[in-house]
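seq as requested:
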Amino acid sequence: MNRQKWLLRLVLLLFSVVISLGISLIAASDSLEFPRNYQQDFVHYASIACPNSRIVRQIYANPMAVNAAKESKPLPDGSLIVMETHSAIADANNQLTPSRLNNVFIREKQSGFGAEHSENLRNGNWKYAWYSPTGSLVSSSEGSCLSCHTRVRDRDYIFTLPDLAIAAQTNELQSRPTEFGLSVCN
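struct tokens:
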């Protein structure tokens, strides 16, 4: 009798593990993959200072996006943009210097991405995800990203598209204060 109970418990435990793994895989497949070597493989094209919140955004684009911007073409499917948010320290001239990496936000453009969102929230074919500095998924909920980026529909939903175009042409990092006075979206 003890052996039957032990086997039943073992089967239930294994079943629970399989169900948990399945749920984890379904949740993970719904989010974007974290590009592990983006700091080496992508182009660091913009540094945006947010003085009100003492945040600096460091923004990277994959070569596909940079090449399209260099040729003044729309960003194609497969374009990836990574935005790091850093706490920052202000110097005597109130210039911000990044001090600690807090978050990494990923966005990818693919045909069909965003189809599940209403037309007034949809950001073209862009999908968003939020990661910790170590690359662990924090959230794949896109609500705040979508609502913020609708302000720049005319820029393919990218606040820093003009910066990307200039950086692609000049091979120079674009540094400036936030254009919209926002610390969350830009």
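Helices lie at 2-29, 38-41, 63-70, 143-149, 161-170.
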